[in-house]
Automatic annotation (TrEMBL):
Protein name: ABC transporter ATP-binding protein
Keyword Hydrolase found: no
Principal location listed in the UniProt entry: membrane
SUPFAM superfamilies: ABC transporter transmembrane region, P-loop containing nucleoside triphosphate hydrolases
Keywords linked to the UniProt accession: ATP-binding, Membrane, Nucleotide-binding, Transmembrane, Transmembrane helix
Membrane topology: Multi-pass membrane protein
ABC transporter domain mapped to chain residues: 378-611
Organism: Flavobacterium cheonanense
PROSITE patterns: ABC_TM1F, ABC_TRANSPORTER_1, ABC_TRANSPORTER_2
Length: 615
């Protein structure tokens, strides 16, 4: 069994009720599909006045003779009706029989499809939910190495492909094979000689179809990867549209997109050619067999005679036999198509499970502490951290006492923002430890850790929703009055109150309807509403104009009075009132002290102040 089939079985288990009934109804469909042809024999016998003369009602003996009993009982009823009421009433009986068998055939087909629909949609929902849970849980570091578009393609396109293609396997192993089996058994009952010819068709065509489909899975994988790359280009083009336009880079992006689309076109055409070949090839092979059957079976009807002078094969039986032989073609074509679909589904499933099986390196320990209060201090002890090969922070130590404000300054690449990433456990340190009240961050639950921290980043991250819902992320059960109070602290209510719908105003994709300063003030309001004991401000005022910064700075100072704050900033006004200023360079602390002490040293801090360039 393919590994991906084994992996998807747990998703099918909750819907085993639907699987069982789908199998049962498919078997019944296959049975009545065959019986619908068999029912034509007595009808044609009545029409051609060739019905068996069963004049006495048959007696039921054992289950093994149920076929013979049923046949004789039917012909007894036909003979009785013909004798008592006329042949037209016998014809009504056999026509009704044909209608009933076709009715049951289609009813069972509908019921099987209905259960398959519930199975496919249920598994699709569960796969999407599991995939999204995994995407949300994976650490930030995972996405620094992956294209977001590719993840989106796996989440949407590949999961859909699993639903659309993978479950063809139920038809591949139940519905169509059972139709073929019932049909062949009936064909053997009619004529053993003729049926042996059918077995020429099945292995030859099966062998050729398997040869054609061998490369399909590999090409499907490449096409799905290319689809992910295509979505990445679109996502990056939209998120960076201003840069694309301002640098006249439209042509470059169009070229990149067109190259990807062309590659996808060629792969899709190649896959499509093989898919399209399955059905006509199966039918052509079937017609060849039917042509041979027509010649050979025709001789049995017209030429070959039994000792009593009757034909070896009756005309009505031969016509039904030919219908049954053609009836094999439809499931044979379906099996060909389904086998190709399953290959595409398996390729998609592989890409889905690649994400689901990624190990989350940043998780809660089994007995992690649920820390609810912050009492004493944050200590960073001799940590080393690297994103790839070279250390960003080397042997770095720092203490942040409760209620104090510590500012981190330094040039770009000195490791300031990395401290924020480590404190929130977006990343884990390789050596050393970070502790809150003497407890290692790795020993407490991430939920309780992040509940104690409010984060305002340099890039104001907002969502395509109302102002109210964006701020409620900080405290989902907050009242409108609390939201407005937080907006006032962040100096944001002055512009929010003038909007058409106030806090119910939608701010567009990534807050695109607002200015940079307005977006940043909403981010600050979100952190204010959360009201955490520890605040991390990563360049929090960098997007504000001078006037707004003054108001927000006062608000932040008021907010930070009762909190432990770590401020990463490049503006003097933001950090000069900090209790401790830490000057960093290439992952090391080169100076620390308050504003006046560092100015008196006349070292790097003094130079940065003169340059006004805390980046």
């Amino acid at each position: 069994m393919d590994e991906n089939i084994k992996k998807i079985i747990p998703f099918i288990k909750p819907y085993k009720f639907h699987v069982i009934w789908n199998v049962i109804y498919n078997i019944l469909y296959a049975l009545f599909s065959t019986l619908s042809f068999v029912a034509l024999i007595p009808m044609m016998d009545v029409l051609f006045k060739n019905e068996n003369k069963v004049l006495e009602e048959p007696i039921y003996t054992t289950i093994w003779d149920i076929g013979t009993y049923g046949k004789n009982y039917l012909y007894f009823q036909i003979n009785t009706l013909s004798k008592n009421d006329g042949p037209q009433f016998a014809l009504i009986l056999v026509v009704s029989l044909v209608i009933i068998t076709f009715l049951f055939k289609n009813l069972f087909n509908y019921l099987a499809s209905n259960h398959l629909m519930h199975l496919k949609n249920g598994v699709l929902k569960d796969l999407r939910t599991t995939m999204y849970d995994k995407i949300i849980e994976l650490p930030v570091s995972y996405y620094s190495e992956k294209r977001r578009g590719d993840i989106m393609a796996r989440m949407l396109g590949d999961v859909n492909e699993v639903q659309n293609s993978f479950f063809s396997i139920l038809e591949l192993i139940v519905k169509e094979p059972m139709t073929i089996i019932f049909t062949i058994v009936t064909m053997f009952a009619i004529s053993v000689k003729l049926t042996l010819f059918v077995f020429i068709f099945i292995p030859i065509s099966g062998f050729i179809i398997s040869k054609i489909g061998k490369s399909l899975k590999a090409k499907s994988e490449r096409a799905q990867f290319e689809g992910g790359y295509l979505i990445s280009i679109v996502e990056e083009s939209l998120s960076g549209l201003k840069v694309v336009k301002s640098y006249n880079a439209e042509h470059n992006f169009k070229q990149k997109f067109n190259s990807s689309v062309t590659r996808l076109l060629n792969l899709s055409n190649s896959i499509g050619r093989k898919n399209n070949l399955a059905s006509p090839f199966s039918e052509f092979m079937g017609i060849i067999v039917i042509a041979v059957l027509l010649w050979f079976g025709g001789n049995m009807v017209l030429v070959d005679k039994l000792a009593n002078g009757k034909a070896v094969l009756e005309g009505a039986q031969f016509l039904v036999y030919m219908g049954l032989a053609y009836n094999i073609l439809t499931p044979a074509k379906s099996i060909s198509k389904a086998s190709y679909s399953v290959k595409s589904g398996l390729a998609a499933a592989q890409r889905v499970f690649e994400v689901l099986e990624v190990e989350n390196t940043i998780t809660d320990k089994p007995n992690a502490i649920n820390k609810e209060t912050f009492d004493k201090n944050i200590t960073i002890e001799n940590i080393n951290f690297r994103y790839e090969d070279d250390n960003i922070l080397t042997n770095f130590s720092l203490e942040v006492p409760k209620g104090k404000t510590v500012a981190l300054v330094g040039q770009s690449g000195s490791g300031k923002s990395t401290i924020a990433n480590l404190l929130t456990r977006f990343y884990d340190v390789q050596e050393g430890s970070i502790n809150i009240d003497g407890i290692n961050l790795k020993d407490m639950t991430m939920n309780s850790l992040r509940q104690m921290i409010g984060l305002v980043t340099q890039d104001s991250i907002l969502f395509n929703d109302t102002i109210k819902n964006n701020i409620l992320i900080g405290k989902p059960n907050a009242t409108d009055d609390e939201i407005i109070a937080a907006l006032k602290v962040a100096n944001a209510y002055e512009f929010v109150k003038d909007l058409p719908n106030g806090i119910e105003t939608n701010i567009g994709d990534a807050g695109g309807k607002l200015s940079g300063g307005q977006k940043q003030r909403l981010s600050i309001a979100r952190a204010v509403l959360k009201n955490p004991p520890i605040m991390i401000l990563d360049e929090a005022t960098s997007a504000l104009d001078t006037e707004s910064e003054k108001f927000v700075q006062v608000a932040l100072e008021n907010m930070m009075q009762n909190r432990t704050s770590i401020v990463i900033a490049h503006r003097l006004s933001t950090i000069q009132k900090a209790d401790k200023i830490v000057v960093m360079q290439k992952g090391l602390i080169v100076e620390q002290g308050n504003h006046e002490e560092l100015l008196a040293k006349n070292g790097m801090y003094s130079k940065l102040v003169l340059m006004q360039s805390f980046e």
